[in-house]
């Protein structure tokens, strides 16, 4: 629950601050871990140097100790090289010689009640260690202790295989404590300071990195419907910002094309709807002025225009459904030959009116049974009807329109060929646009220029292909390809 609240809180802050926090988290964690490792390594090094100096001092002291025949000890004045610099004051060193029985044989310095341990030290030396070290912390029973901790070394004095006499020297760790404290203070001050600098640096760098995004945001805010030709700037660097700007520009291209298409659609639809309405208005005005009571001809003409308006509205509604996208489809498994048979039954009346014969052939290029496709039954029937009616309309009377259904391994093809005048070469690229009609046939063939645009949209929604080309010596050839399931 707490993690969810944290994630919700993080999701509400700006991406700039998020980037800075992530940078600070990664950099800070890495830097703190590295400094802790280096600090521990530095302590180990200083400790080793301190122990090495203490060991050398212990060796010098042990060389001055003489053991008599009766086991008595003699401590001559200690002589050290003048060039030696030790990390502890010699005057405060506590020195004693101890027997394995626990008896203290000799002492130098004010031990007070301080009694250094020795038993485990004997055991470790007997096990083969050259010397043993201990850190005695919080020394309260040493009179006038100069440090919070002392370093104790135990070193064998006799050369027996199992030494019985130890030289123990305890020295204050004042210098080592000071060095560690200074370095710790540097880390305590330096790490927050570096993290603070890194925070401002991260904010600055993230702001610089997001400047192109902010420019794109400001430009995108100022793009209006009347200024869709504007584009966001594309940076030179080949990074994600460049990909984002290119994607936005591609989206703006599509939006501009959609707006232009809708504007053309509204203009063309207004023109197409206005024409029959103007005709109906003129005829009704003539009827109103006419003294002839025979109104059958006027009514028939008005009904024809109403039919035209109904046809336009139906096609526009169908186009709106197609424009709604794949979510408006009722996809199901279909046998495409049944779709064509249904389309033929709807086109039969139009073909008879022009004495045109519809020739339908099925070609199976595989050894399998008929193929099935997945699609919207009503839309695919509309597509087939549109292609067949288009071929009938543009074919002369008493001609033949060829329909071919071809089953291949991966796709089903539906081909419609007519023997009409064909499509002018300069109009082929625009044949599937809304309200696009060949100018040479506009007065001879009734239509509104929406059928092929609808058919092309239906093909795109079914991930299919609808193509057109002229065939020799005359006529047009439409082919529809859809994937089998």
UniProtKB/TrEMBL annotation:
Residues 207-260 form the HAMP domain. InterPro entries: HAMP_dom (IPR003660), HATPase_C_sf (IPR036890), HATPase_dom (IPR003594), His_kinase_dom (IPR005467), HisK_dim/P_dom (IPR003661), HisK_dim/P_sf (IPR036097), Sig_transdc_His_kin-like_C (IPR004358), TCS_sensor_his_kinase (IPR050428). It comes from the Bacteria. Keywords: Kinase, Membrane, Phosphoprotein, Transferase, Transmembrane, Transmembrane helix, Two-component regulatory system. It holds the Pfam family HisKA. One of its GO terms (molecular function) is kinase activity. It catalyses: ATP + protein L-histidine = ADP + protein N-phospho-L-histidine. Its EC number is 2.7.13.3. SMART domains: HAMP, HATPase_c, HisKA. It is found in: Membrane. The chain crosses the membrane at residues 21-39, 186-207. Residues 268-485 form the Histidine kinase domain. Signal peptide: none annotated. This is histidine kinase.
């Amino acid at each position: 629950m707490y993690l969810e609240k944290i994630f919700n809180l993080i999701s509400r802050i700006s991406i700039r601050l998020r980037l800075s926090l992530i940078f600070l988290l990664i950099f800070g964690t890495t830097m703190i871990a590295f400094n802790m490792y280096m600090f521990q390594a530095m302590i180990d090094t200083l400790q080793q140097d301190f122990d090495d100096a203490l060991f050398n001092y212990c060796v010098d002291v042990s060389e001055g100790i003489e053991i008599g025949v009766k086991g008595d000890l003699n401590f001559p004045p200690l002589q050290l090289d003048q060039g030696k610099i030790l990390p502890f004051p010699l005057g405060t060193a506590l020195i004693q010689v101890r027997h394995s029985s626990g008896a203290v044989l000799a002492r130098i310095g004010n031990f007070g009640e301080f009694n250094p341990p020795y038993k485990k030290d004997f055991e470790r030396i007997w096990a083969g260690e050259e010397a043993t070290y201990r850190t005695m912390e919080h020394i309260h029973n040493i009179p006038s202790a100069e440090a919070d901790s002392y370093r104790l070394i135990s070193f064998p004095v006799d050369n027996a295989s199992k030494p019985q006499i130890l030289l123990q020297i305890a020295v204050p760790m004042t210098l080592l404590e000071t060095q560690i404290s200074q370095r710790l203070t540097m880390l305590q001050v330096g790490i927050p300071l570096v993290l603070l600098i890194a925070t401002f640096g991260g904010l600055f760098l993230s702001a610089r990195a997001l400047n192109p995004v902010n420019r794109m945001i400001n430009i995108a805010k100022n793009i209006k419907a009347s200024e869709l030709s504007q584009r966001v700037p594309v940076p030179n660097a080949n990074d994600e910002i460049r990909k984002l700007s290119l994607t936005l520009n591609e989206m703006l291209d599509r939006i501009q094309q959609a707006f232009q298409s809708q504007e053309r659609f509204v203009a063309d639809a207004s023109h197409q709807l206005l024409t029959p309405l103007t005709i109906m208005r003129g005829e009704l005005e003539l009827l109103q002025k006419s003294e002839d009571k025979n109104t059958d001809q006027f009514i028939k003409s008005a009904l024809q225009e109403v039919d035209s308006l109904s046809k336009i509205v139906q096609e526009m509604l169908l186009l709106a459904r197609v424009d709604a996208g794949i979510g408006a489809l009722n996809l199901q498994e279909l046998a495409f030959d049944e779709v064509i048979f249904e389309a033929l039954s709807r086109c039969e009346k139009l073909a008879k009116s022009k004495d045109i014969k519809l020739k339908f052939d099925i070609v199976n290029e595989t050894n399998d049974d008929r193929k099935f496709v997945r699609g919207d039954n009503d839309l695919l029937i509309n597509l087939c009807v549109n292609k067949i009616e288009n071929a009938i309309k543009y074919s002369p009377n008493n001609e033949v329109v060829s329909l071919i259904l071809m089953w291949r391994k991966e796709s089903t093809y539906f081909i419609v060929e007519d023997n009409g005048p064909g499509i002018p070469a300069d109009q082929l690229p625009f044949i599937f646009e809304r309200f696009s009609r060949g100018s040479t046939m506009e007065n001879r063939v009734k239509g509104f220029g929406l059928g092929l645009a609808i058919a092309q949209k239906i093909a795109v929604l079914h991930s299919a292909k609808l193509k057109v080309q002229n065939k020799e010596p005359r006529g047009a050839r439409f082919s529809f390809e859809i994937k089998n399931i």
